[in-house]
Amino acid sequence: MTDIKTILVPVDGSKGSDKAVDFAISLAQVYKAKVNFLYIANINQLAINACLSDAILDAVTKAGDSVLDKALEKVPHGMQAEAFSETGSPAVTILEFVQENKNDMIVMGSRGLGVVKGVLLGSVSQYVVENAKCPVVIAK
Ligand SMILES: Nc1ncnc2c1ncn2[C@@H]1O[C@H](COP(=O)(O)OP(=O)(O)OP(=O)(O)O)[C@@H](O)[C@H]1O
Ligand SMILES: [Mg+2]
């Protein structure tokens, strides 16, 4: 049986990502695995180079911290969990993170904070499902 030691859960604070957090915690209980929550501040490199104001950067960082704190609060006693914050393209950053940290699987939502409705998968989950080398679960 495949040994799942660490589950990566990308979180953006949406309902879809809340479902992913719940499902990942259930899976982590079965596998006795650790959960890694990852929030990516979606600021493109151009905007960074154009020198974002400290106030904007501060607001984005705080938003991420509260999303990560909410996820950590759901973790039951005795389960290992860690929160990470990155900046960049969410889809690319999720794949880089899972590879670099050798996480064993990804659990994410089908949709996120995007406004386009009526599409089964958001662009981030679609990209990750297509390009990840590890198992990906889309929580619904
Ligand atoms: N910035 C982010 N940081 C971490 N995880 C994210 C981020 N954005 C999306 N995700 C993850 O991807 C899942 C699907 O979100 P996605 O962004 O693909 O859908 P959407 O917002 O509805 O569509 P789109 O972004 O294409 O408009 C979320 O439930 C969450 O698990
Ligand atoms: Mg989105």
From TrEMBL:
CDD domains attached here?
USP-like (cd00293)
Q: Name one Pfam family in it.
A: Usp
User: What span is annotated as the signal peptide, if there is one?
Assistant: none
What stretch or stretches form a coiled coil here?
Answer: none
Going by the entry's taxonomy, the superkingdom of the source organism is recorded as: Bacteria
Q: Where is the UspA domain?
A: 4-140
Q: Which family does it belong to?
A: Belongs to the universal stress protein A family.
Q: Spell out the protein name for this chain.
A: Nucleotide-binding universal stress UspA family protein
Upper classification of the source organism reads: Bacteria, Bacillati, Bacillota, Negativicutes, Selenomonadales
